[in-house]
TrEMBL record:
InterPro entries noted in UniProt: PilZ_domain
Name the record gives this protein: PilZ domain-containing protein
Superkingdom per UniProt: Bacteria
Domain PilZ: 3-91
Source organism per UniProt: Pseudomonas duriflava
Pfam family, one: PilZ
GO MF annotation, one: cyclic-di-GMP binding
Amino acid sequence: MKQNRHIERHQLPYFLKVFNRFTDKPMGYLGNISLDGMLLISELPLLVSGTFELRLKVPGRDGQLHFIDFDATCQWSREDVTPGYYDSGFSLAAPPADYIDLVESLRHYFSFNSAHQSV
């Protein structure tokens, strides 16, 4: 049975690279993100039901590169509308605090709240 998910996700106009945590090789790009999961855009299809040990490298407020390490399980993988690319949906059972902080920061950055708008 197909599962319909209604999780708020935030589209990213510029993609962050996602790395294999142990080999440090890029696996693809972060397409969107939520507290419960993410979309990975890659050049290869990924193993559905496989658990992957991933890393995001994000710039910190101190100007240094910070690593966000987490485990994610691939729920589905299918060809993207762009030839030669695949979209894979991941779930995170226990996202680390740094991942949660990133999601919240991106949500704040991409939100259009009336309190942040100038007239």
